[in-house]
Design brief:
five-stranded mixed sheet, globular, TIM Barrel
Length: about 475
């Protein structure tokens, strides 16, 4: 049984990860520009050079059977300085991208923020500063009015959890801090900014729908004991609920706030007028990025430990998550894991979709799903492992739809090989290969590109189905 004819079959990118042109056409410096340059780390100065290849990339996407393209706008490319000066060259670039999509009958699915904060705001405290919410509101107002009528699908933020947790708690992303108080303040401000944008969208009667994109991590327990169920609730609040409950229900989980207070986090920065904004800002849909679930057991011992493997095979097995007093995440010995310690578990997507359907009752889009691998792109990439991965996850979506989940689109991560944050360019996700050693950055399709075209053309009818 195929999915319906209105289903969006697409792929996804992000501005910093693919555009390059980091200082062209009056673009302001971003937090990632500064962080990676100062620390002498591999960066996205050029990346996939989408800035100069967008026409080719969108054409190839369309020729690959895809009817939607998820991409993000770069805030520092559009707003030049802390005074809110608009950079017309930045707007012109995105007009060209959007117009190219429309010319190829590709639906633009636009993310307003995918982690590249203007450095002039980072200098003022970034997401720790309430004024960043106001600056964000100005930025999104410019975008709403500029692209209204061309864009029908908007999302406010991509993965608030990772940009905040990695930046302020785990410390492996910019600005590289390790502070629970800062993490809580940053998380609150980013969800407040989200709410302000949604409310503006309604007030200005912008055409289309607005949602948020979350790094969805369905939570499973090692057993059904009361202790495990309690640990799972802690884990679900940590991984999911502070984003999804806030966006879909207008409510920050009360028991999470109690637990934070018990850990000594000062919540006095939360204001009644902000909570009223959050309460009325309910999204039209949820964008869910799915890579894996979290398998949880009760906390036993040890300090809070948060280690993410950004080094691949050189650090395989090093990832670790312990939240002292809350929960521990463990590995399932029967599962397969990537070189970056990501569990391959398609059933987690099925389970997660049904849970989200029951909890929120909103339309859902799988806004990212893919597998990062080492690949030799000097020859044709026969990525059967990616085909198997995507088949099994699309099968999970189709099973969930059969069982009542309202899923309306699937976006492979990623459209082409790109810069993968601290993992650099060696971790490849693309349906299209790019040789980053080639000055021309030639694009060549992988086997998965042709396979995905068949899937999209058939609305999933060619997926090898498997029941759970």
């Amino acid at each position: 049984m195929a999915l319906n004819d209105h289903f969006l079959w697409g792929s996804a990118t992000a501005s910093y990860q693919c555009e390059g042109a980091w200082d062209l056409d009056d673009k302001a410096e971003s937090n990632w520009d500064r962080y990676l340059h100062v620390n002498n780390l591999e960066n996205g100065d050029i990346a996939s050079d989408f800035y100069h290849h967008y026409e080719e990339d969108i054409r190839m996407l369309s020729e690959g059977g895809q009817n939607s393209f998820r991409f993000s706008l770069s805030w520092p490319r559009i707003i030049s300085d802390i005074n809110g000066t608009v950079n017309q060259k930045g707007l012109d670039f995105y007009h060209k991208v959007i117009d190219t999509c429309l010319r190829y009958d590709v639906e633009p699915f636009v993310t307003l923020y995918h982690w590249d904060l203007p450095q002039y705001l980072e200098d003022e405290g970034g997401w720790l500063n309430r004024k960043t919410c106001d600056a964000y509101l100005h930025y999104v107002e410019v975008c709403f009015k500029e692209f209204n009528g061309k864009v029908r699908y908007w999302t406010t933020f991509n993965e608030p959890r990772w940009t905040i947790f990695n930046g302020y708690l785990i410390g492996n992303y910019c600005p590289g801090h390790h502070d629970a108080q800062e993490t809580t303040v940053g998380a609150y401000h980013i969800m407040l900014a989200h709410a302000m944008a949604v409310n503006l969208f309604r007030e200005e009667q912008i055409e289309g729908k607005i949602g948020i994109v979350h790094s969805y991590t369905p939570v499973d327990g090692v057993d059904d004991s009361p202790e495990t169920l309690k640990a799972m609730r802690y884990a679900d609040n940590y991984c999911n609920n502070w984003v999804l409950d806030t966006a879909a229900k207008g409510e920050i989980p009360e028991d999470l706030l109690v637990a934070l207070s018990e850990k000594g986090v000062d919540l006095s920065f939360m204001k009644e007028e902000d909570l009223k904004q959050i309460k009325k800002a309910r999204v039209d849909f949820l964008g869910l990025n799915y890579y894996s679930r979290a398998l949880i057991k009760p906390y036993t011992e040890g300090e809070t430990t948060l280690i993410i493997n950004n080094k691949g095979k050189a650090a395989k097995g090093s990832s670790k998550t312990i939240l002292k007093g809350w929960f521990e995440q463990i590995k399932d010995p029967s599962s397969e894991y990537t070189e970056w310690d990501t569990e391959i578990y398609p059933k987690g997507l099925y389970d997660g979709l049904l849970r989200a359907q029951q909890r929120y009752g909103l339309p859902m889009y799988i806004t990212e799903n893919g597998v990062g691998m080492y690949e030799d792109v000097s020859e044709y990439v026969e990525d059967d492992y990616r085909i198997s991965f995507m088949n099994d996850h699309i099968n999970a979506i189709m099973n969930a739809v059969d069982d009542g989940a309202d899923v309306r689109g699937y976006f492979a991560w990623s459209t082409f090989d790109l810069y993968s944050w601290k993992n650099g360019c060696e971790k490849r996700y693309g349906l299209v290969a790019i040789d980053f050693n080639d000055p021309k950055l030639e694009r060549r399709t992988k086997k998965s590109y042709q396979w995905y075209k068949k899937v999209a053309d058939s609305n999933g009818a060619c997926i090898i189905r498997k029941a759970y």
